[in-house]
Amino acid sequence: MGKRASSPTGWTKCGRAISGDVVRKKQLEIILQKLSPHPSPSAELEQYMTPGGVAAALLQLANSQGDIAGKVVCDLGCGTGRLAVGAALLGAERVIGVDVDPTALEIAEQNAARAGVDIEWIRGDVNEFKRADTDTVIQNPPFGVQRRGADMVFLRKALQLAPVVYSLHKATPKNRAFIAERVKEMGAKITDRLELWFHIPRQFKFHTRRVHRFKVDLYRIEKGGKKW
Ligand SMILES: C[S@@+](CC[C@H](N)C(=O)[O-])C[C@H]1O[C@@H](n2cnc3c(N)ncnc32)[C@H](O)[C@@H]1O
Predict the structure, then answer these.
(1) Is 66 left (phi over 0), alpha (psi -120 to 50) or beta?
(2) Which atom of ligand 1 has the smallest separation from the CA of 75?
(3) What residues contact 101, with CB distance under 8 A and at least 6 apart?
């Protein structure tokens, strides 16, 4: 099960995402925003935490489409677990978080315990990850700024794992065209795209502003029949 019956915070009593008994978007945002960050994020791994509002928007969209509650959900590049914890709070049947960084997973485990949810944390490269029963992938992948193409590695793997993928990417006209082309090549289709504001507090030497704000696109992508 993605959640326990009760938690020290009382968050889980909100339970499954059925109207009238939901973790509301604002409430979810506040809960996720309070989760602990990475103590020493790596620029190379693009360890930026998804802002609470963006994470809540992704999860609520996914849940409204029937892709979270009661489903097996994988969070690729889960970091400190914001998306994974949110999916569990919304009543996912099972949540699996995958990340290459053991420190991030340690914090993720603590965050899940604070939220009173059970999540399976797996340390490893997403490229090596396999899981046949995945219904939905949720991910905020590296944007490919530090390692070119890292975002596409995640997208390709996500579409190999699950029929439905929610993924965040840089919102530039060039990137939109690029992603549309790659998704088509992978035999999948973009069903929704939502533009959202993302912010990163200054955390690396090359950050010149106190808060860096930029737009991201949230994609909902469905796998087509074609194999690749
Ligand atoms: C932009 S962060 C997102 C973190 C988290 N999902 C969140 O929403 O706060 C990207 C994450 O992907 C992880 N990562 C990068 N490359 C990876 C790889 N090849 N395999 C597994 N995880 C990876 C990083 O360690 C980092 O935690």
Answers:
(1) left
(2) 6
(3) 38, 42, 45, 47, 79, 123
The separation between CA 140 and the C-alpha centre of its own chain, rounded to angstroms, equals 5
**pLDDT (tens digit per residue) in 113-140:** 999 999 999 999 999 999 999 999 999 9
Would you say the CB of residue 82 lies under 6 angstroms from ligand 1?
A: yes
Is residue 217 within 8 A of residue 54, CB to CB? The reply is no
At 21, list the tokens.
């008994």
Atom 8 in ligand 1: which residue has the minimum CA distance? 50
Whole-structure pTM over 0.90, yes or no? no
CATH architecture classification, 22-223: 3-Layer(aba) Sandwich (3.40)
* Ligand 1 atom closest to Cα of residue 125: 20
SS3 of 107-149: the string is HHHHHHHHHCECCEEEECCHHHCCCCCCCEEEECCCCCCCCCC
